[in-house]
Amino acid sequence: MLVPNLVLFYVEDPLVSAAFYEKILQIKPLASYPTYVAFSFENGFTFSLWSKQAENFVSGGQGHRSELAFMVKNEEEVRKLRKMWGQFGVEVEQELHEATFGLTFVALDPDNHRIRVCIPDKD
């Protein structure tokens, strides 16, 4: 069985985006180059930023049709992250609200990728 372990976001400037993600993730990148930055997590997952100006970058797609999401243990943690990210100056596209699956909010990175914080799905 294949297990997903990498998500790549296409960005204008990986170093600018990396500074944003260092702040909200509170970790340093594993690898950092002018056209590529990678963050590695203890669970084996890697989150990477790839420059749309990289020599070998090819993509026919347009726009953002996905989200990077963080499921946290409870609503208190959702509220805590919303407050902390607000103090960091992170742009919020959707303020705290109750969705079908519970309390959530959506922030934007420097390239307008959506970043959702929520609780695990309610039964």
Structural features, described:
The structure is a single chain. The chain has 123 residues and is of the alpha/beta class. The protein contains 2 helices and 8 strands, in the order βαββββαβββ. The protein has helices at residues 14-25, 75-87; strands spanning 6-11, 31-33, 36-40, 46-51, 67-71, 91-99, 102-108, 114-118. The strands form 2 sheets. It has a 4-stranded mixed sheet with strand order 1-4-3-2, covered by helices on one side. Strands 5-8-7-6 form a 4-stranded mixed sheet, with helices on one face. The chain starts with 5 loop residues before the first strand and ends in a 5-residue tail after the last strand. The relative contact order is 0.20.
Query: So what's the overall shape?
Result: globular
Derived from helix and strand composition plus strand pairing, the structural class reads: alpha/beta
Indicate how many domains the architecture comprises.
Answer: 2
CATH architecture of the largest domain: 2-Layer Sandwich
Radius of gyration: 15 Å
Please give the share of residues in helix: 10-25%
Please identify the top-level CATH class of the largest domain: Alpha Beta
Main pleated-sheet profile: 4 strands, mixed
| Overall pLDDT metric | 91
Instruction: Give the uncertain stretches in residue-range form.
Output: none
Strand order of the largest sheet: 1-4-3-2
Put simply, the count of helices is 2
